[in-house]
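Hi Y.,

Following your request, here is the sequence exactly as I used it, all 416 residues.
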Amino acid sequence: MLVQFRIASIAALLAATPAFPATPLGLEEALRQAEAGSPQLAAQRASADAAAALVVPAGENPDPKLVFGIENVPADGADKWNVTADFMTMRRVGVMQDFVRGEKLGLREAKAAAESQREEAIIAMQRADLRREVATAWFERFFAERSKKLVVDLAGEAKLQASTSSAELASGKASSADAIAVRGLQASLEDRMLEFDRQARRAAATLSRWIGADADRPLGSAPDTYALDHHASTLEGDLDAHPHIAIYAPMVAAAEADLRLAQAATKPDWSVELSYAQRGPAFTNMVSLTFRMDLPVFASRRQDPVAASKAKQLEQVRSQAEDATRRHVAEIRASLADWETAKARVERYRREIVPLAEERARLVSSAYEGARADLASVFDARRNVIESRLAALNAEAEVARAWAQLAFLAPDRSSP
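Below is the corresponding structure, written out as tokens. Let me know if you'd prefer a different format.
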């Protein structure tokens, strides 16, 4: 009984202990967690390590071969299948080594090194994509929650107006149409709250793909989306270092090495074999040294078509690199246009549109109190304030989305 009492006391004490609030989830923390726990980046890192391990072996000659067997065994006659009676019968053992031309070994190693660099470039590209997607999801949730809070605050004001209009309706000062307008405004705001709640939950669900349960933590403050770590005017200056373009340089290098290997196929490789042959007791043993060399005498039907194919593949990779560069530049310019336009819109909303809508709402409310306007005009002006504030928030969200597109285009100097 005493033990049960102590357990119950401890349980009650734990239940009464207030839970510590979760620390806010900032964008930088979300990015770090996403990178650290990304299976995609881990898989690509394994692929890059595997490619790097192949660079040194690519420049090496093949392993030597052990050669052994029996030669010239009689197949008929008195010494049929006898391995010691005939002087030509030999039990031979030896070693053979193929030697690839140094030029080819160098090209093979260069191709393997280029493929290793390509795998590393893919890591940088996937990391940039991951950071952009995480930032976009984080901002989607951030602005959806801000929009919902704004609507909740405005719904509170609409509720007060509804109670006022109910009293005025009872006194005969307001009409039934005014009461319906109030109810319509409340229903519209409630629908907006549901929509923003849906957007916030979907963004959190998207974020949970990369950071798990931490996606449900309250969000911290947003970073400064009005400034970029790299100046906007220099985004097109070092395109070859951008993660989405840097991948093509090693691809071109690998294709060039492949072409040169195909062209070098007409230059023969060679091999050497050293063997020792043991004959019957009555005969002397033999030592043989043999050299072999490829004879590419049909190059027009064998090596030349392969080289022509590799040349076309190199042309393909170069064209793909050019197309990717043009597409990347177009994306930079489009995102810059979105970013700069959205910033100008936010300033316009802050300086003019929202203040004018609020001033109009105050004037209409004053006119209504002076019996110079009806209640419907008040609700219409109030709805205009709501729409202008939400539009201002949407413009801020557009700034953040464009910032997320631009912030991870240039090479990230903090990447490992």
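The first strand starts at residue 65 and ends at 71.

Thanks again,
Q.
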